[in-house]
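TICKET: design request
STATUS: open
ATTACHED STRUCTURE:
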């Protein structure tokens, strides 16, 4: 759902005459976000196993990535764009983007059910998927 809403917003931006890359991003988003979720879940699970846990919280970890992106990033972007326009997106994203990262990381740590050790699994996995996403997403 997150990828579809985000892709739809990218198409709106492209149709409004903003960077044509938004069309390409809209086509790639569904696949790219699934890949990001897989990287996040699998790497966190692998690190957790190294920390002595046999917990595989893949579904919960994927949700800890998808829902905060939708609610804390994509939907606010749509509101900001609708109310204040394209030029307001970047300054606004500096505020809610950082909060979204913290919520996503916190949710991921909670989803691991490993206490503080969960952070050792989730944080590197979250940053690995962020690097993956940075290759395509704007």
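STATUS: resolved
RESOLUTION: sequence designed for all positions
ATTACHED SEQUENCE:
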């Amino acid at each position: 759902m997150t990828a579809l809403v985000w892709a739809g917003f990218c198409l709106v931006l492209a149709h409004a005459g903003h960077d044509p890359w938004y069309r390409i991003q809209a086509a790639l988003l569904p696949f790219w976000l699934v890949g990001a979720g897989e990287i996040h879940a699998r790497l966190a699970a692998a690190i957790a196993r190294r920390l002595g846990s046999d917990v595989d919280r893949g579904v919960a970890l994927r949700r800890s990535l998808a829902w905060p992106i939708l609610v804390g990033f994509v939907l606010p972007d749509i509101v900001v764009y609708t109310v204040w326009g394209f030029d307001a997106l970047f300054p606004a994203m500096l505020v809610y983007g950082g909060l979204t990262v913290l919520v996503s990381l916190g949710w991921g740590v909670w989803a691991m059910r490993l206490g503080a050790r969960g952070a050792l699994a989730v944080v590197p996995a979250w940053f690995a998927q962020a690097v993956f996403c940075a290759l395509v997403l704007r």
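CLOSING REMARK: The radius of gyration is 16 Å. The helical segments are 2-15, 21-50, 58-84, 89-112, 116-134.
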